[in-house]
């Protein structure tokens, strides 16, 4: 095909023929295939000290790289500790005030502790030392004693190198000055979007519907649009959604402003078995409402702590978020997100570590193995259902269970969801109800010559032990008690005070004090019914596989009651922060305690200075006297209502320190339900029929889909402007 066309070189707006011979960059004379020059543009380094020379990028993607940097804007970190160096015999450092008046081009590199010029990096040719030479492009300028060099770099007239580069930046983003050259290329896609396709996809089908219903639209779209400007190609569809996603995320960042925030992070595999990490921001907006917003779904190459940290750092850098404003973290899932590894630094706080109980971990591992061994084979699953049917018929004939409408329906082992931690309760309950059938089928598998007989044999030993049955009943009891709490925590507006109230009424403490005898009775009855050996409670407890002489001499009863029963319940209760309950406005602020609130403020030394801590007791006195005497605060139900009312009555300004305590308490993550809902949405967007979605396409689709209330408020003009500036278009949208 190439022999029928003559190759041409299309000049770009940043190519200067008079200087092109002076650029000493080696390039390959052979044309590279597109799949070898494509790159992940969102991964371009933000730090100017880490960027490669702009001319090292392949010509086919160089303009996309330039446009990406221009849309992102200069790298201007502010809330960081700038290092001090000796300059002119004195310790000096960079000041963020240098950005003032130079906001459109000045960049700071944390890597090199130097400043750079964005527009000169993108467009300046190798023209010598005028305007500082390469100091503001490759080497960086770090003489903090001489700020006047910035003005010298810019130059006094419009013909300076810097100003000419800045004009090229503006010209590239001005679509009216750009003319897109024509290319002969065929777009390829696996789905049929041809004119006579019965299902062209939602985008084209909706356009067709619009054309049928609207005469004005029909005159300018699809068949009535110019052949080379229909704007319906797959790449155009992705650009439109990407523009919507960027504007949605920017709106969230604007809503956050300079407020403190927490992050909720979790990871899960999509339908293509690619690890996806979702990051949610939790913050209090300007109206006093607690918000949880998804800002990104990012593919992580591995789930190690270092890889996750790099991904979070990249998101923070992309959206200009500072770790200094981070006040809380919520994690669910893999242990590498719990703060147990070195290298996570300030992002993963030590106090958010989750202590694990080895006995309960072993229980859930065994239950998962049981579910997998039956779920992996339709034959074994059907055999289990047949056995369960026989057990139910036998129990009905012996009057051991009742019959009636809706009772004794066919059931199977329930697999716990990766993203719904409350679903473990259903898994354990199904195992308790189907226990004899599970044992019978595992025994049958052991007798068969299959690849699962050894695994089934090990599971039989584990399941038919007193230790396993005790753990099974203990966790079923605890998860059953806290089931209402689990359901309530799925609400994204849940605050820490309401969560603590639910924990108090969940009867955990009462179970710890009075539930031991009843639990032991149930476990003993279960073991007797299915002929499982019951140890004597007065004997010395010996852990499995360990010699007796090397262990502390405790009785079996002490081990199961103190080290398991009491320990597990205590760990369920001790993770709740009861200190912030003093802010609860219920019953005319009956829980108010000035000393505890001052102590709470002392836990945030970065947010309360010494003078503010000194002034806090008096402000608390004035605050409680005011709100107790005001009708506006008489019927509040939670700390969330309190924050909204403080803002509505302008008292958040009068009692600014108290309001800061309220917001700090609100942003404490209670649960990761919003992240779990994002993964539920991911299963709908990226399904078996769309399992080849790229990571950026998935992120853009999910952000718009999940945060549609934010997206609905974004103007069409903002999206059109973003779409227009992404790349050169053959036409200008109005």
From TrEMBL:
Keywords: Membrane, Transmembrane, Transmembrane helix. It comes from the Eukaryota. Residues 7-21 have a biased composition (Polar residues). Residues 90-185 form the TTF-type domain. Residues 1-21 are annotated as: Disordered. InterPro entries: AtLOH3-like, DUF4371, HATC_C_dom, RNaseH-like_sf, Znf_TTF. It holds the Pfam family Dimer_Tnp_hAT. SMART domains: ZnF_TTF. The chain crosses the membrane at residues 425-446, 458-481. SUPFAM superfamilies: Ribonuclease H-like. The keyword Methyltransferase does not apply. This is TTF-type domain-containing protein. It comes from Penstemon smallii. The lineage of its organism: Eukaryota, Viridiplantae, Streptophyta, Embryophyta, Tracheophyta.
């Amino acid at each position: 095909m190439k022999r029928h066309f003559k190759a041409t070189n299309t000049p770009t707006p940043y190519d200067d023929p008079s200087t092109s011979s002076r650029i000493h960059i080696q390039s390959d004379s052979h044309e590279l295939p597109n799949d070898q020059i494509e790159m992940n543009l969102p991964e371009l380094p933000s730090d100017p000290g880490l960027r490669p020379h702009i001319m090292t990028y392949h010509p086919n993607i160089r303009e996309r790289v330039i446009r990406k940097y221009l849309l992102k804007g200069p790298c201007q970190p502010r809330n960081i500790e700038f290092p001090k160096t000796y300059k002119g015999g004195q310790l000096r450092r960079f000041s963020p005030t240098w950005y003032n008046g130079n906001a459109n081009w000045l960049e700071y590199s944390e890597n090199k502790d130097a400043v750079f010029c964005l527009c000169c990096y993108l467009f300046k040719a190798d023209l010598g030392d005028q305007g500082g030479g390469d100091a503001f492009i490759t080497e960086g300028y770090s003489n903090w004693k001489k700020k006047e060099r910035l003005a010298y770099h810019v130059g006094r007239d419009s013909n300076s190198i810097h100003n000419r580069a800045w004009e090229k930046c503006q010209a590239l983003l001005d679509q009216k000055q750009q003319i897109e050259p024509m290319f002969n290329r065929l777009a390829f896609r696996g789905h049929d979007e041809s004119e006579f396709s019965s299902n062209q996809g939602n985008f084209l089908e909706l356009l067709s519907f619009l054309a049928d219903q609207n005469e004005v639209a029909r005159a300018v779209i699809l068949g009535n649009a110019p052949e080379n400007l229909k704007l319906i190609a797959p790449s155009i569809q992705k650009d439109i959604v990407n523009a919507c996603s960027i504007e949605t995320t920017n709106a969230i960042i604007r809503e956050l402003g300079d407020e403190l925030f927490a992050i909720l992070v979790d990871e899960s595999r999509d339908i293509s078995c690619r690890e996806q990490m979702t990051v949610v921001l939790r913050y209090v907006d300007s109206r006093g409402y607690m918000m949880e917003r998804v800002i990104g779904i990012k593919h992580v190459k591995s789930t190690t702590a270092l890889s996750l940290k790099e991904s979070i750092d990249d998101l923070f850098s992309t959206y200009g978020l500072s770790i200094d404003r981070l006040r809380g973290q919520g994690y669910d899932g893999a242990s590498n997100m719990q703060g147990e590894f070195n290298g996570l630094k300030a992002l993963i706080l030590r106090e958010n570590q989750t202590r694990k109980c080895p006995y309960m971990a072993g229980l859930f591992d065994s239950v998962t193995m049981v579910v997998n061994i039956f779920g992996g084979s339709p034959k074994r699953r059907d055999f289990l259902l047949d056995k369960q049917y026989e057990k139910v018929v036998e129990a009905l004939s012996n009057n051991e269970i009742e019959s009636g409408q809706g009772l004794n329906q066919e059931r199977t082992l329930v697999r716990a969801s990766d993203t719904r931690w409350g679903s473990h309760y259903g898994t354990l309950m199904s195992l308790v109800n189907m226990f004899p059938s599970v044992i019978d089928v595992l025994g049958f598998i052991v007798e068969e010559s299959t690849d699962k007989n050894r695994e089934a044999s090990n599971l039989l030993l584990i399941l038919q032990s007193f230790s396993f049955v005790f753990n099974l009943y203990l966790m079923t009891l605890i998860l059953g008690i806290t089931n209402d709490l689990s359901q309530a925590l799925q609400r994204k507006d849940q605050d820490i005070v309401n969560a603590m109230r639910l924990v108090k009424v969940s009867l955990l403490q009462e179970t710890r004090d009075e539930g031991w005898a009843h639990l032991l009775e149930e476990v003993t009855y279960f073991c007797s019914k299915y002929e499982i050996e019951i140890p004597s409670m007065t004997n010395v407890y010996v852990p499995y596989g360990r010699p007796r002489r090397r262990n502390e001499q405790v009785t079996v009863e002490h081990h199961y009651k103190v080290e398991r029963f009491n320990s597990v319940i205590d760990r369920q209760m001790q993770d709740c922060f009861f200190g912030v309950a003093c802010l609860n406005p219920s019953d005319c602020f009956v829980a108010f305690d000035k000393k505890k609130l001052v102590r709470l403020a002392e836990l945030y030394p970065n947010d309360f200075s010494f003078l503010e801590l000194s002034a806090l007791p008096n402000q608390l006195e004035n605050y409680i006297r005011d709100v107790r005497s005001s009708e506006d605060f008489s019927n509040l139900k939670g700390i969330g209502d309190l924050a909204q009312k403080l803002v509505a009555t302008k008292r958040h300004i009068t009692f600014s320190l108290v309001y800061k305590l309220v917001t700090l308490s609100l942003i404490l993550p209670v649960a990761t339900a919003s992240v779990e809902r994002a993964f539920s949405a991911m299963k709908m967007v990226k399904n078996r029929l769309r399992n080849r979605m790229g990571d950026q396409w998935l992120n853009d689709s999910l952000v718009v889909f999940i945060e549609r209330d934010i997206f609905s408020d974004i103007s069409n003009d903002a999206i059109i402007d973003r779409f227009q500036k992404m790349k050169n278009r053959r036409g200008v949208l109005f």
